Amino acid sequence: MSFSSDAWARNAALYEKTRAMPFNQELASGQLDENAFRHYMIQDAHYLVAFGRALAIAAAKADHADGVVQFADAAKGAVIVERSLHAGFMKQFGIDDATFEATPLSPASHHYTSFLIATAWSAPYPVALAALLPCFWIYAEIGRDIQARAAQPNPYAAWIDAYAGEEFHALVRAVIATVDRAAEAASAQTREAMHQAYTHAAQLEWMFWDSAYRQASWPV
Questions:
Q1: In this structure, what CATH number is given to the domain that contains residue 48?
Q2: Are 61 and 23 in contact (CB under 8 A)?
Q3: Which alpha helices (DSSP H) does the chain contain, by range?
Q4: Domain for residue 24, yes or no?
Q5: What residues does the Thiaminase-2/PQQC domain cover (predicted)?
Q6: Which domain holds residue 195?
Q7: How far does CA 132 lie from the centroid of its chain?
Q8: In angstroms, rounded to a whole number, what is the distance separating the alpha carbons of residues 82 and 93?
Q9: What is the pLDDT of residues 153-212, one digit of tens each?
Q10: Residue 193 in contact with residue 127, Cβ under 8 Å?
Q11: 10 Å Cβ neighbour count for 112?
């Protein structure tokens, strides 16, 4: 069994909890509170900068030239291409630059970004990739799942279409293939560390959406 197949099977129940959580159910129905979506967009824009940094570190650690290009391009996509989508959403939902800049990372966002950057810096290349994989893969699967049952018209259609689209899914398939290749050459100990990193990142994906739904902030 490939690493990715094994990781998905080990975390299938967690994915189902993520798929069924209120944020994603209400996003599909078009009934998600706009304030929750605004919270999500601000936090995700902050997150993508850190995600891009972690991808850039992974590119520097890559064991093959193709990996350098793959993850350097993914870092560029995270910081530039996807943030252009956010800029459109922020304008649509009335989030100005001052509001964005004045809003700090939420506790869940801070935890997730700190984990990714720390893992990218300190862990072996295969483990760093495993930590980054859930953000790609879970978003792709959630995007397709929501698109299949989304109410029409839907105020969040652009977000849904971005993550359900073939361009994003092709990127995700390429990342999965690279992670599996890295896992094939890894020791059993490293593969288990990859599984731990994947699961923790998948848990943080759930926490990120849950935090947005609750519009969570620092309690003190």
A1: 1.20.910.10
A2: no
A3: 3-10, 12-19, 22-29, 34-61, 65-76, 82-92, 97-102, 107-122, 125-149, 157-164, 166-184, 188-214
A4: yes
A5: 22-214
A6: 3-214
A7: 8
A8: 17
A9: 999 998 899 899 999 999 999 999 999 999 999 999 999 999 999 999 999 999 999 999
A10: yes
A11: 25
